[in-house]
Write a structure and sequence with these properties.
Number of domains: 2
Structural class: alpha/beta
CATH class of the largest domain: Alpha Beta
CATH architecture of the largest domain: 3-Layer(aba) Sandwich
CATH superfamily of the largest domain: Type I PLP-dependent aspartate aminotransferase-like (Major domain)
Number of strands: 16
Strand content: 15-25%
Order of helices and strands: HEEEHHEHEEEHEHEHEHEEHHHEEHHEEH
Bound molecules: 4'-deoxy-4'-aminopyridoxal-5'-phosphate
Shape: globular
């Protein structure tokens, strides 16, 4: 495959856009660098780049594009929204409709608010939890990603009872002192942290099914224990469902697992590919938010008419019969194909899959927390990623990300992908 036009564009981008990209992972940092592919067009499960190469897409824009690119129902909704004027700064009926769809799908959302990104959604849930409890500290789990607001860019301290260190320049030590990070799926570490900061913990923040060190499910009972212990300590529980909501079923991971948080952050899929975030939860907690309460959150773009209408259209597609069953069926075929190819060519790979989302890790037997994912081979993943790209398969450029199936992928796409995996494994990952 030839990427000369992408190379040219990347060089030009670097002269005007910091680092040539508007989000760091697009610069292929996770796979040792290289020229990112500049896409020109997407349709269904496929992408075409500026050099005319075609790819099967499993990046799905890091999650939102669950119906495939340019789904006609969503495209129509966006066109209609554009024709009606894109922004009003007033309420619209569509917001009511969409909020109604979300609250119906996820009963823990007694009230919601729309914002513009997952980052904003999570950031605000933390503010609301602090307002409600009058406490400051947050406990989160290592490797879970919650956007780029200050509080969640804090790395683990040296033990469960120590506060964290800034994970980014520009995040102050004072802020890091408000955050405790413990390993996912480690209830003892969580309990120790909570015991230590009993009266200070405003909220526990967790991806109920992790999407940010690959797809990692909670061990049986883990989330239930987190809920019980947190509530006993007077802390709220926030689920970051920015990746997971409407990914595995029509509803959230909380529906799938039968565990309810106090507050939930949403994003990605619910915008049908347009910018969106939302947060919500128990009515008495949400009543902390302005104009009813003292916690402030606002936005010129909040409830953006085009995003809302795209989101409604996306959920309408996802509500159709059999949509999730098919993504699960194809996901299973893909998982089996990868596992069989790995066995055939003695590639040390393990696949974590839930329905239509999966992650392939190399040189590790099992991944249940961030440390395991970190211990998996970065080098082998980088080789795998680059060889798959050459064969027309577009994966997320990091061993910590997931492959996402969409409603547009066909069994033939999956067969072609497995064929590519076989070829790459036959060549080896050294
Ligand atoms: N939470 C989770 C779980 C995410 O995966 C992400 C983005 N990958 C965010 C929050 C932040 O969302 P956004 O990029 O829309 O700000």
């Amino acid at each position: 495959m030839n990427f000369s036009n992408s190379e040219k564009l990347y060089e030009e981008a670097g002269k005007v856009i910091l680092g040539g990209v508007n989000s760091p992972s697009r610069a292929y940092k996770g796979v040792g660098g290289g020229t990112p592919v500049f896409m020109k067009k997407g349709k269904g499960a496929y992408f075409w780049d500026v050099d005319g190469n075609q790819f099967i897409d499993y990046l799905a824009a890091y999650g939102p594009i669950i119906t495939g690119h340019a789904h006609p129902h969503i495209t129509k909704a966006i066109q209609e929204a554009a024709a009606d004027g894109v922004l009003y700064g007033t309420p619209t009926e569509h917001e009511n409709v969409f909020a109604g769809m979300l609250t119906e799908a996820m009963p823990a959302l007694e009230r919601v608010r729309f914002v513009n990104s997952g980052t904003e959604a999570v950031m605000t849930t933390i503010r609301v939890a602090r307002a409600y409890t009058g406490r400051n500290k947050i406990i989160k789990f290592a490797g879970c990603y919650h956007g780029h607001s200050d509080l969640v860019l804090v790395a683990a301290g040296s033990g469960p009872s120590t506060t964290g260190n800034p994970d980014s320049a520009g995040v102050t030590k004072n802020i890091a002192e408000e955050v405790i990070t413990v390993p996912f799926n480690d209830i003892d570490a969580f309990k120790e942290a909570l015991d230590h900061f009993q009266d200070e913990t405003a909220a526990v923040l967790v991806e109920p099914i992790v999407g940010n060190f690959g797809i990692v499910e909670p061990e049986p009972g883990f989330l239930e224990s987190v809920n019980d212990l947190a509530h006993a300590a007077g802390s709220l529980v926030i689920y970051d469902e920015v990746i997971t909501a409407f990914r595995f079923m029509y509803g959230g991971a909380q529906n799938l697992l039968g565990v309810e948080p106090d507050l939930t952050a949403l994003g990605k899929i619910i915008g049908g590919g347009l910018p969106i975030g939302a947060y919500g939860g128990r009515k008495d907690i949400m009543e902390q938010v302005s104009p009813l309460g003292p916690a402030y959150q606002a936005g010129t773009m909040a409830g953006n008419p085009a995003s809302i209408r795209a989101g409604i259209a996306c959920l309408e597609v996802l509500k159709e019969d059999g949509v999730y069953e098919e993504m699960d069926r194809l996901g299973r075929i893909l998982e089996n194909g990868i596992v069989e190819a790995a066995e055939k060519y003695s590639i040390p790979a393990v696949v974590n899959r839930l329905h239509g989302a999966l992650t392939v890790y190399f040189d590790i037997e099992k991944v249940t927390n961030f440390q395991d994912a970190e211990n998996s081979s970065t080098g082998k993943f980088a080789v795998f990623f680059k060889k798959m790209l050459q064969k027309g398969i577009n994966l997320a450029p990091s061993k910590f990300e997931a492959w996402f199936l969409t409603t547009a992928h066909t069994e033939e796409d999956i067969r072609q992908t497995i064929q590519a995996v076989e070829e790459v494994f036959a060549e080896g990952l050294e």
